[in-house]
Amino acid sequence: MSDEMNRQTGAPAGVVRRQVVRAGVWSVPVIAAAVAAPLASASPSQVLSLMILNGDSTGSDGLSTTFAGVNLNEPSVPLILGISTTSPAGPASGALTATLSPNAVGVAGWEGGAGSVFVAAVEDGGAVLPFEALGYGAFTLTVSMGTQTWLLNIIFSA
């Protein structure tokens, strides 16, 4: 039996049950990681597509729009974005970062004066960016979500 002592040295003979249990406990995380790694690498990557859903004239590419009749006395202009995904997990969700380009100075800002960067929550495949019209003209907006980035072209006109 393994718990019997070696008669010559006084040491336990063979493998002790405690050693087996100790080795088993330490191997559980390694086995779990080895099983999870192939599953993670086999998951499909999420591909997102973005489209502007409002404005008076939206380009065929879905990445440009014109807001005609902008009233500078009532400067709030919400930009509504639709974000779709190829993921079988369902609609896109998470954080979206939008950055106004330098050519937006004097034309557009974020409602409440949030600087040039705004972070929006994407819920059920949509997000709203709260612009404030400061003047008339064109500007570029860089939108990023996850590893993907889009350049949006926006025009505010009278």
Shape: globular
Strand content: 35-45%
Which CATH class of the largest domain?
A: Mainly Beta
Number of beta strands: 10
Distance between the termini: 93 Å
Can you write the helix and strand succession as a string? Answer: HEEEEEEEEEE
Whole-number average pLDDT?
73
CATH-assigned fold name of the largest domain: Immunoglobulin-like
Per DSSP, the total helix count is 1
Structural class: alpha+beta
Helix/strand layout:
Elements: H1 17-42, E1 48-52, E2 57-58, E3 64-67, E4 76-85, E5 94-100, E6 108-110, E7 117-122, E8 126-133, E9 137-145, E10 148-156
Parallel strand pairs: 3-10
Antiparallel strand pairs: 1-4, 2-3, 4-8, 5-7, 5-9, 6-8, 9-10
In short:
The chain is α+β, with helices and mostly antiparallel strands and 158 residues long.
